[in-house]
Prior knowledge:
Elements: E1 3-7, H1 11-23, E2 27-31, H2 34-44, E3 48-52, H3 60-68, H4 73-76, E4 79-84, H5 89-98, E5 102-105, H6 110-124, E6 134-136, E7 139-142, E8 147-150, E9 153-155, H7 159-170, E10 176-177, H8 178-184, H9 193-210, E11 221-224, E12 228-231
Parallel strand pairs: 1-2, 1-3, 3-4, 4-5
Antiparallel strand pairs: 6-7, 7-8, 8-9, 10-12, 11-12
Amino acid sequence: MQTIAIIEDDQQIRRVLEGYLQQAGYRVVSSADGAAGLSMVEREKPLLLILDLMLPRQDGLEITRRLRGNPDPALSNLYIIMLTARVEEADRIVGLEMGADDYVIKPFSPRELVARIRAAMRRLESSAPSPQILQSYDLRLDPVYRTVTLAERPVDLTSTEFDLLYHFMQNPGRPFSRADLLDVTQHDAIGDISGYERTIDVHIKNIRQKLGDAGRHSRFIETIHGVGYRLVPEGKRS
């Protein structure tokens, strides 16, 4: 049985989520405290974490930072959905830049969240991709072991970042709109799509930074103005 962890200090929200997720067939572990919740996640190693932003003793941003820096891949690559009551876009973007894979704004529909979790779980538990290793110059991606190296040095990507880079490397030179890339992440936008598309921009920014590609002229992921993004073809790279 797949395990999902919840760190949420609002007892009502936590109990509602526990009930919906257990009914959906998941094993659920939960905590109302940031520090205790981090210890729980390190012990249980769930496949997915639902993480409140504002928590006692240790907030969601600090927990995300510590998980992403953990040497254990089961923790550093953990899929994180951040819950936030903050409505400002800048507040949500901070969570994505710290390494969250997705966010949900309170108040939210538990059914919508469970549907989003199911989509994430299908992606995480999908059948093994083609074993072909993809390479672009000194950037190398192994889709089976889900590893990325640049000049033989490991690059630590979140699950969503890996899936986006994998999609680009499968289709070098082909431009993709932000809506196309939302489909890659299996993120079902509800309401104003522009806010969801902004999350793609943040994920791309994170990938570029991790590839040392944050300068004006990108070696790998190029912005196509008015369209979206593409992986720079090798023959066109400066």
